[in-house]
Amino acid sequence: MIGLDNATVRFGTRTIIDGLSFSVPVGRTMAILGPNGRGKTTTLKAMLGFQPLNAGRRIAPEIVGYVPQTGTGNQRYRGIDIAVMGRAAHLGLFGQPGSADFEIARSALERAGAARFADHYFDRLSGGERQLVLLARALATGSEALVLDEPAAALDLHNQERLLNLLNALRQPRDRAIVFTTHDPNHALTAADDALLMMPGGQPLFGPVSETITPEHLEHLYGVPMRVVELAGPSGETHRAVLPAFAGTRAA
Amino acid sequence: MTARRSRIARQTLVFAGLLALFAAAFVVSLCVGRFSVPAGRALELIWLGITDPTRELGAIDERIVLLVRAPRVVLAALAGAGLALSGAALQGVFRNPLVSPDILGISQGAAFGGALGIMLGIWGLPLIGMVFVSGLVALILVGMLSRVNGRTETVTVILCGLVVSSMFSAVVSLLQFVADPNTSLPAIVYWLMGSFATATWERTLIAAPGLIIGGVLLWMLRFRLNILSLDEAEAQSLGANTTRERWLVFGLIAVIVGSQVAVSGIIGWIGIVIPHAARLLVGHDHRALLPAAVVLGAGFMVIIDTLARTATAAEIPLGVITALVGAPIFAVLLRNHYRERHAS
């Protein structure tokens, strides 16, 4: 389980998050949605323990699998060396990764779809490829909680779909709590059970996707008229999708 | 699989080459000098010295090899290894390839202790103790200055290191200004420029424990150094207590650099040039980088010291040669590094 209990964070006189409570139990996935500057990143950092809280408390296992957007780029490590770093917490200060740890790292690369980058230098990979290696590292920690910072932000449409499929594949066994931030409500519809909407006025909305991802809530969230439509997916079944109805938009 | 195998083969080759270079430098350094000794004879003498250390040393070549050159070569190798290792660890922890052990103020702090000791007429073990303690004091000062609101930022540590360094070097200049120009001034100046000329087995034994213990502990931290070389947030998410572990690394480096400065003065450039070269040879992973830096640093220091005592009739200060050799190498490395980065 990972979450926050009545958490408040202030930067100077500005209150970024105010009495925020939510929790993601093992087996569920939560998407954090909201425009820039409403505290998505602060919430994520608070969950990870990087952001000290002014009030309230953090609920999290000792080690959380964290997937940053890009990761440290200037050190030349191979993919497998990055993935095996996920074992650090199990090895202690003077510990060295053994063959069992490398085995875990290899299967984590496999699960993240990054096995082919094992012997590639991390700093030579593209942004999307790096992210998969970082995901493998987070999986190698063995943590029951997985937190991804804007995993789809730097990806083209094709890679967005691959990432969402991957998130769903990780979600399917229902054996971990997954949290990710995103700008696109469609990602929440596709790969999350719950959503946290960082509403204006500091009143976040937390609940199941079916109740939170609605045109009314999203209009309030983004300040843009939103429409939810039914689409036939590639295999015939229908999906819900969210579209902004920008004021200046005219159907071509 | 083949990529991994060829990489292991390449690393084995690199390490074999480095060890051969070091062994060659070691033997050559025992042989050359104003009194030259054939290589076979030098090795035979070393063997006799190891197997029968209590033996009476009669012949002149025995005394030169075993009492003058061997301790000097061993001390140079230990000092070079320690400086290179410290530089490699520090560059990893700071995530910055341009920092070196002098950046934390340790070298200048230690220099202050040494200069003060020499001026006060202190010699031997107490002098070494003073050097060591003042190096540690400089490090602690940096630590206290850079801690703002309970947090320590890496950039602040570098800036405070610069501040403390220049404070101590100003005081060293002041000491030189007031030192007796007939007695203590030359000793201070010569010591500040770095030299192994005064090496004896006794001095080697004084420096060895700090260099070896600090080095072994850093080596044991090699995987942790990989973690600490990541972004602060990433390293913490992987379970590292970054602030505390970074200071542990700094402390070990203070022990190594303090021990080295105490017996051989300030030797610049090794801590920055050698880790760079080692990184080009074996990559950034500290599990391979640290041993490569140790062997290369030891070999390079022995070669430099041999040059220092044989190139001219009088001995050239080490600091002069390391700068003359190190700076151009560094410039070339830097240019190659950026050319490669732009090409990729």
TrEMBL record, chain A:
GO terms for biological process: zinc ion transport. Residues 2-225 form the ABC transporter domain. It comes from Xaviernesmea oryzae. SMART domains: AAA (SM00382). Belongs to the ABC transporter superfamily. Keywords: ATP-binding, Ion transport, Nucleotide-binding, Transport, Zinc, Zinc transport. GO terms for molecular function: ATP binding; ATP hydrolysis activity. This is Iron complex transport system ATP-binding protein. InterPro entries: AAA+_ATPase, ABC_transporter-like_ATP-bd, ABC_transporter-like_CS, Metal_Ion_Import_ABC, P-loop_NTPase. The lineage of its organism: Bacteria, Pseudomonadati, Pseudomonadota, Alphaproteobacteria, Hyphomicrobiales. It holds the Pfam family ABC_tran. It comes from the Bacteria.
Automatic annotation (TrEMBL), chain B:
One of its GO terms (molecular function) is transmembrane transporter activity. GO terms for biological process: siderophore-iron import into cell. Its main location: membrane. Belongs to the binding-protein-dependent transport system permease family. FecCD subfamily. It is found in: Cell membrane. GO terms for cellular component: plasma membrane. The chain crosses the membrane at residues 12-35, 128-145, 157-178, 208-227, 247-274, 286-304, 316-334. Pfam families: FecCD (PF01032). It is a multi-pass membrane protein. This is Iron complex transport system permease protein. Keywords: Cell membrane, Membrane, Transmembrane, Transmembrane helix, Transport.
